[in-house]
Backbone:
């Protein structure tokens, strides 16, 4: 794992050093440009999140990059006047009822995982598309197995920032769409930190191909005795929360799905596993079982 | 450019006034009438606030139309309110065979006629005359409007025209080519030899400047 | 209200917005009274400039919408039917209730400080809470929607003077969303706006997830 991380880190550095990628560049170049925009582009955007079934939300998103990395403000345009601010220091909820701050969790980037995508997805690019009046390159990630969703991304040719995304299930149905309808770019921040390599110990973890344990936290705010693991293949992101509940308290939910995000619950004795991620529920069950087995 | 803010629309007898001319530019751009269609569709899907936007868009024209038959300013507003409510109730059956405004226009005229009958007042006998009434460029019922309302109307008109006249040349040109000549952004861009985005920005800046001038009157 | 949005509104008047951009702006107009007011104002100025009859400022829209609402209130007890505009919210609430029928309540964590690991919680309510009352973070999945009473398609009516309690589940969701900073295109990263009743949760079946 360490060797893989170093190799990918070198690749990342080499590609990120390229000055002016063109649409003719390969998908890895564009994936890494996207990664760079994610962590170092200052911009304001209006974004629509369509989770299907008439469930959609309009948000205004502003990103500014500070010394600690990108800071984002999400403002929901639902009239409730609530904002959410995310920084490396944590999440703040600001609203008419009052302000609250929640401590930080693991903040992660796909970075090194991107180089391996074509082992688990068929990657195609179409350099001649447009979104919101801007030139865009369409990158299509079609999974080679049914245990994960496909992803289509329209990447801004000028900045590398995705302008639109679509999550697609095995039947090619769109589960969730996200789209930038307005973008004001304020330029790249100066030198941005290179993503930390993935070095977590995966001993005892049996995960579907391409997935890696990329983060963990020993505590979860507000929930005594809970811990969190984060798993990703560079496209899908999964949180597995393990917790023990007070006497007589149970989680009865079999799980739910909202757009591309699903949730399932597993139990082993007194340990509950609350699994959340943009994967089919069946694969989330595998993730929960992997966490359960790793703890035994 | 010889732009004349006192331009008068040609009158067509027997037909309701058409909506704004259709923009005929790039494929992704839609006609203005399509905005009404989109709003109607949303109302039909249960989105009531979309109807609010239609009322806001047409309220002045509908009240002015109704004042042809019900000159009293307050009565005309009441009738207009009833006409909009009737339209809302009838919208599930609106199939878009005609433009929304044409349809709303007919409902408003009928509502005004019914109001006059209910008041034992005689409506105009000639429907052509009725239709034509809405097309008069400057035939308001001044004698029946309340002094306050008439003063306010004139104040708004004077302020709008004055604000437009005060606009920088390129902004005033873009705005009037759009509003008076009904040209699309693309056509204006060709005439003014500038990008479409500049046209869009200039027209907005013009409207924004006028809005700032009339806002105290509107909100007052 | 940003200048860019107002410029979009101006272009919308002229039919010069693309379909998607138009749909999103219309969506925003539903919830933005100031933008709707500008919409009225710009049409008023259009009527004046094009010399259409009219020209006196009006606020008929409020009267019409209020009248419609009053009619609904009178009709509702007889028809037993619900206005269509409410259905999406009812559907969402129903789905949420199905998915969360029995929920768990976790005792408030006494260690709300930064001493454990690298997590911290700093409740910052605007009004001081009396001693003994749990802070704004109330980690319970059972208090979904407490403090917020949604009104269909309109601004929320906040009935609580203190920060809306955050459920344990919202906490888990927010934490999940935070970890992939910047990547808004990752599923599940959208903010949790403490209005879980508006989230459309579809029950998951065939997962075999609840194993004794």
Residues:
């Amino acid at each position: 794992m360490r060797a893989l991380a170093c190799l990918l880190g070198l690749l990342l550095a080499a590609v990120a050093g390229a000055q002016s990628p063109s649409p003719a560049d390969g998908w890895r170049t564009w994936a890494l440009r996207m990664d760079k925009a994610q962590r170092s582009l200052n911009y304001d955007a209006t974004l629509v999140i369509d989770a299907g079934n008439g469930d959609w939300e309009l948000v205004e998103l502003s990103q500014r990059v500070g010394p600690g990395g990108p800071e984002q403000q999400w403002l929901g345009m639902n009239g409730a006047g609530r904002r959410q601010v995310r920084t490396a220091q944590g999440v703040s909820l600001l609203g008419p009822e009052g302000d609250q701050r929640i401590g930080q969790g693991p903040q992660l980037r796909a970075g090194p995982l991107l180089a391996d995508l074509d082992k688990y997805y068929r990657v195609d690019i179409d350099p001649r598309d447009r979104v919101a009046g801007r030139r865009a390159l369409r990158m299509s990630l079609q999974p080679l197995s049914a245990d994960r969703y496909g992803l289509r991304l329209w990447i801004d040719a000028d900045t590398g920032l995705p302008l639109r995304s679509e999550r697609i299930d095995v039947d090619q149905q769109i589960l969730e769409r996200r789209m930038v309808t307005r973008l004001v770019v304020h330029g790249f921040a100066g030198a941005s930190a290179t993503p930390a390599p993935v070095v977590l110990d995966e001993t005892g973890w049996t995960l579907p191909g391409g997935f890696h344990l990329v983060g963990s936290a020993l505590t979860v705010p507000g929930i005594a005795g809970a811990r969190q693991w984060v798993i990703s293949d560079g496209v899908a992101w999964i949180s597995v929360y393990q917790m023990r509940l007070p006497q007589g308290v149970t989680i009865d939910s079999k799980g739910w799905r909202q757009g591309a995000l699903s949730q399932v619950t597993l139990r082993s004795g007194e340990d509950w596993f609350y699994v959340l991620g943009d994967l089919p529920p069946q694969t989330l069950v595998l993730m929960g079982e992997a966490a359960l087995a790793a703890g035994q | 450019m010889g732009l004349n803010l006192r331009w008068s629309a040609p009158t067509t007898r027997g037909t309701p006034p058409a909506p704004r001319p259709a923009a005929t530019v790039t494929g992704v751009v839609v006609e203005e009438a399509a905005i009404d269609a989109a709003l109607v569709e949303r109302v039909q899907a249960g989105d009531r606030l979309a109807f609010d936007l239609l009322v806001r868009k047409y309220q002045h024209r509908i009240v002015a139309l109704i004042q042809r038959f019900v000159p009293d300013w307050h009565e005309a507003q009441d009738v207009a309110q009833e006409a909009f409510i009737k339209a809302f109730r009838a919208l599930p059956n609106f199939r878009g065979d005609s433009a929304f405004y044409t349809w709303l226009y007919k409902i408003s005229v009928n509502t005004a006629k019914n109001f006059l009958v209910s008041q034992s007042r005689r409506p105009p006998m000639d429907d052509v005359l009725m239709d034509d009434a809405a097309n008069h460029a400057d035939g308001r019922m001044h004698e029946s409007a309340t002094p306050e309302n008439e003063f306010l109307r004139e104040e708004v008109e004077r302020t709008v025209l004055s604000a437009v006249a005060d606009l920088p040349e390129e902004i005033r040109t873009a705005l009037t080519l759009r509003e008076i000549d009904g040209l699309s952004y693309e056509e204006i861009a060709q005439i003014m030899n500038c990008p479409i985005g500049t046209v869009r920005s200039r027209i907005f800046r013009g409207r924004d400047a006028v809005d700032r001038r009339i806002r105290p009157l509107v909100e007052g | 209200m940003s200048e860019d949005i107002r410029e979009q509104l101006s272009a919308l008047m002229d039919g010069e917005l693309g379909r998607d951009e138009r749909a999103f702006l219309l969506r925003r107009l539903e919830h933005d009274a100031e933008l709707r007011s500008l919409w009225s104002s710009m049409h008023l100025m259009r009527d004046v400039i094009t010399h259409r009859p009219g020209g006196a400022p009006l606020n008929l829209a409020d009267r019409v919408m209020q009248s419609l609402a009053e009619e609904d209130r009178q009709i509702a007890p007889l028809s037993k039917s619900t206005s269509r505009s409410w259905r999406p919210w009812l559907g969402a609430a129903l789905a949420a209730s199905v998915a969360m029928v029995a929920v768990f309540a976790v005792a408030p964590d006494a260690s709300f400080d930064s001493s454990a690991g690298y997590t911290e919680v700093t409740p910052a309510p605007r009004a001081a809470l009396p001693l003994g009352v749990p802070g704004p973070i109330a980690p319970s999945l059972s208090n979904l929607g407490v403090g917020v009473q949604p009104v269909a398609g309109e601004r929320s009516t906040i009935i609580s003077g203190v920060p809306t309690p955050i459920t344990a589940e919202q906490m888990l969701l927010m934490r999940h969303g935070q970890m992939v900073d910047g990547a808004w295109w990752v599923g599940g990263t959208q903010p949790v706006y403490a209005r879980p009743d508006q989230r459309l949760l579809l029950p998951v079946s065939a997962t075999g997830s609840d194993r004794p």
